[in-house]
Specification:
Length: 418
């Protein structure tokens, strides 16, 4: 739908189905944001053990990754609207049951852990459903714009979600879980109104297990056969590893220097606000920037954003770097995700996202441990230089790759293939 006065595309909210999709996806994100920090606090409160609480967090991450691998194929074989209803409905029930058990004094650590792992399994298994549905709603030509809006929305919700969850936890420890249940219920209601264009129907469900694993293998083979996708994954993985490790090093540096907890949380708030501003800019320019050249420039800007930390580890330098590095990230995500997933066929969206995100998550999952090991050995400035070096390598790889360098702006994506 185009604005007649300017000739530019109108608001995405004028696209049929988009308001319902946006509501469902936003409420699912709100549910996750509200209980994200509270789950770890509750695990420690119920177990009384830092070790058990730490292993619990690790187990949740492992469950999410493992189920995501299988979930991508399942998503491609079933109706997206139905899966969003299942995801929001089942998770909402689990969070409500947790809150109810806590109020009645029947919630033990192992019962809590079991219910949380079940929620992680459902969320991981169906995690790509909403994104697969988005491209069916807005179409490939406007996917980058939608991704820009999502980046800003995600930053806003996550920035506000943790403090709200912590405040609710302070009032009554069961409140964050009931709040998550309410958010999931709102997502369920929004998804009831979700409709897709008739011409973009999906494959029907087939109960054949052999066919399921055949589809899974075929989907991953398709991803790994694409030199462009695999090159992108390597470059994104290196850059995200560097950025995530930098973030972990900053947190550890602040903690080890006895920085007030409120000031530490303020770094995340400032980063979230910078990401939000960056997403507003991205939504206006993402369809006009050549993706290949944009990737090279933006990665360089992200790396240079950490330059103040080379000279100083002060709180002011950390705040400045957090702002400078966070501003370009939404545009980077919009260009990369917009191109890759708009070019991916609808019936391969789930498997492609599972393959790409699982591979990238393997890079990110190691960043915390690496930062923790290197910080005592290299010092803060040494870790900063090393991680900036990794980001610089990703810039060189992107600039030297003719497949990536040649990716045009979104109006010309039909001229290239994965």
């Amino acid at each position: 739908m185009t604005d007649a006065s300017t000739g530019r595309p109108g608001s995405l909210f004028s696209v049929p189905g988009y308001p319902a999709w946006f509501g469902a996806d936003t409420f699912l994100l709100c549910s996750s944001a509200v209980h994200w920090i509270v789950v770890s606090l509750m695990a420690y409160r119920l177990s009384g053990s830092v070790t058990l609480a730490g292993w619990f967090a690790t187990a949740r991450g492992i469950v999410s990754v493992v189920t995501q691998v299988l979930g991508g194929t399942f998503i491609d074989r079933h109706d997206h609207r139905t899966l969003i209803l299942v995801q929001s409905g089942s998770c909402g029930i689990l969070w409500f049951v947790m809150g109810l058990l806590f109020v009645t004094g029947r919630l033990t650590f192992f019962l809590f852990a079991g219910l949380c792992l079940a929620s992680s399994a459902i969320f991981g298994f169906l995690d790509g459903t909403s994104n697969a549905a988005l491209i069916r709603v807005v179409g490939p030509s406007r996917y980058a714009q939608a991704e820009s809006i999502n980046q800003g929305r995600d930053a806003a919700v996550r920035t506000a979600g943790s403090p709200i969850g912590a405040a609710l936890f302070g009032i009554a420890e069961s409140l964050p879980f009931f709040a998550s249940a309410i958010c999931d219920a709102a997502a369920f209601v929004s998804a009831l109104f979700l409709r897709f264009p008739e011409e973009q129907g999906q494959r029907r469900t087939t109960p054949n297990a052999a066919s399921f694993f055949g589809d899974l293998i075929e989907g991953w083979q398709w991803v790994f056969a694409s030199r462009l996708i695999m090159s992108s994954v390597l470059i994104i993985g290196l850059s995200e590893f560097g950025a995530f490790a930098m973030h972990q090093a900053i947190n550890l540096q602040l903690v080890s220097s006895d920085t007030d907890a409120l000031l530490i949380s303020l770094v995340n708030v400032v980063s979230g606000m910078a990401t939000l501003i960056g997403s507003l800019i991205s939504a206006r320019v993402c369809d006009r920037i050549p993706v290949g050249k944009g990737i090279v420039v933006i990665l360089a800007l992200i790396g240079l954003g950490y330059l103040p930390l080379v000279f100083s580890g002060s709180y002011a330098a950390i705040i400045a770097s957090s702002i400078m590095a966070s501003l370009p990230m939404p545009l980077f995500a919009a260009l990369v995700n917009g191109f890759v997933f708009s070019k991916t066929p609808v019936d391969r969206q789930g498997r492609t996202r599972a393959a790409v995100m699982t591979t990238i998550m393997l890079f990110g999952s190691m960043s915390g441990a690496v930062a923790g090991e290197l910080l005592p050995r290299l010092g803060f400035h040494g870790v900063v230089l090393l991680m900036m070096g990794l980001i610089a390598v990703s810039v060189v790889l992107a600039a030297a790759n003719p497949l990536i360098r040649a990716i045009p702006a979104s109006p010309h994506w039909d001229e290239v293939s994965l």
